[in-house]
Amino acid sequence: MMKHFVKWGIPALLAFSLVGCSGQGEPQTQQPSAPTEQTEASQPTGNDQAAQQTVYPLTITDATGKTITVEKAPQRIVSTSPAETEILFALGLGEQVVGVSDYDDYPAEAKEKPKVGGVVKPNEEAILSQSPDLVVGGISMDKQVAEKMQSLGLPMYITHPSSVEDIMNNILTMGQITNRQVQAEEIVAGMKADIARVTEAVQNVKPEEMKKVYLEFAPGWTVGKGEFMDELITIAKGVNIAADTQGWNQINEEKILQENPDVILYASGMTDEKTGKKLEQIIQSRSGWNTITAIKEEKLYGMDENMLSRPGPRITKGLIEVAKAIYPDLVK
Predict the structure, then answer these.
(1) CB-based contact 303:294 (threshold 8 Å)
(2) Within this chain, do residues 188 and 209 fall inside the same structural domain, yes or no?
(3) CA distances, 207 to each of 194, 211, 233 (Å)
(4) Residue 247, SS3 per DSSP
(5) In the chain, at which end, N or C, are there fewer CB atoms within 10 A of the end residue's CB?
(6) Given 165, 192, 219, which residue is the final one in a domain?
(7) Angle at which helices 164-177 and 82-90 pack, to 10 degrees?
(8) Do 77 and 188 share a domain, yes or no?
(9) What is the domain range of residue 256?
(10) Does residue 298 fall inside a structural domain?
(11) Which residues make Cβ contacts (< 8 Å) with residue 242, sequence separation at least 6?
């Protein structure tokens, strides 16, 4: 099971953890602008595109509070996080990506890139062999590995998005670092359109009509407040029955039975390594769970595990799938 946590980059709480410029003189720290309220990408004019060119050197602060300075647009990028790899490819930087983690599998082109090990403790030699001018990792990256990269003068950008807004801001920041600001804004605009689609579809759901939802993203694990998976349920006007907890949690089977969820969401394709059983089978076979409304009424829905769990550009597509599962009559 742990390999799935690594694959997703989910934070260390689970064991090892499945985010300014000046033309002259000293570089100045510049924070990424917040996503705009528009839901459709507008076509930038030539002047707009010129205004959105990153000016280097660029100094920026990552999720660990450390500042990095990028001297020019990166041409050799190593990503040790599947979500960040998806972002880089979405920004049109596939050719500049020269190394990825062992778990990177989307888009298909990422599978062909040289592997640099896991997301927690990637292979330092493999990273250095690619002569990168930017290394990107998740908050789960081993601190010593990150410090080693930094000591060698390599720009190391660490991310840790815990909300949908964080994810969008992270995409904007990556666009800024790589001089792909126009592309980043287009991606975020599309994500906002997805969110608007869902919120408009469920806007008339009254509080007393909101469905109780249980999410199991790996055998025996669910998620509470403070993480983007919980936020997906909330945006879709569902009630996460684990919302009284914080972060990633091992489940209490009796509590879930008592909460009696209307809908159960689970990561499709997930198999328990010890028993060989699929997650759906595990859920349905638990003692007493056959009395749960979601199981009696066959309201169990398998979600694409990567789309649901990776804090990247596809997360709002995951939102749409969550909303469809909760309110199939409203979200088409």
Answers:
(1) no
(2) no
(3) 22, 9, 14
(4) coil
(5) C
(6) 192
(7) 60
(8) yes
(9) 203-326
(10) yes
(11) 214, 215, 222, 223, 224, 230, 249, 251
- pLDDT averaged per 10 residues in sequence order, the chain, 332 residues: 46 35 31 35 51 92 91 97 97 98 96 95 93 91 82 88 96 98 98 98 98 95 95 98 94 96 94 89 96 97 92 97 98 90
Number of domains in the chain: 2
pTM: 0.85
Clarify whether residues 232 and 285 are in a common domain. Answer: yes
Q: Residue 218: how many CB atoms within 10 A of its CB?
A: 22
Instruction: Confirm whether 96 is domain-assigned.
Output: yes
Final residue in a domain of this structure, among 130, 159, 192: 192
- Are 303 and 320 contacting, i.e. CB atoms less than 8 angstroms apart? no
The residue among 138, 101, 108 whose CA lies nearest residue 311 is 138
- Using N-to-C axis directions, what is the helix angle for 164-177 and 228-235, rounded to 10°? 120
CA-based torsion, 226, 29, 178, 189: positive or negative: positive
Both tokens assigned to 59: 């100094």
Give yes or no for a contact between 29 and 60, defined as CB atoms under 8 angstroms apart. yes
3-state secondary structure of 24: coil
180 and 275, same structural domain?
no
The answer to whether the CB of 89 falls within 8 A of the CB of 78 is no
- Tokens describing residue 188: 């975020």
How far apart (Å, rounded) are the C-alpha atoms in residues 290 and 76? 53
Specify if 28 maps to a domain: no
The verdict on 209 and 173 lying in the same domain is no
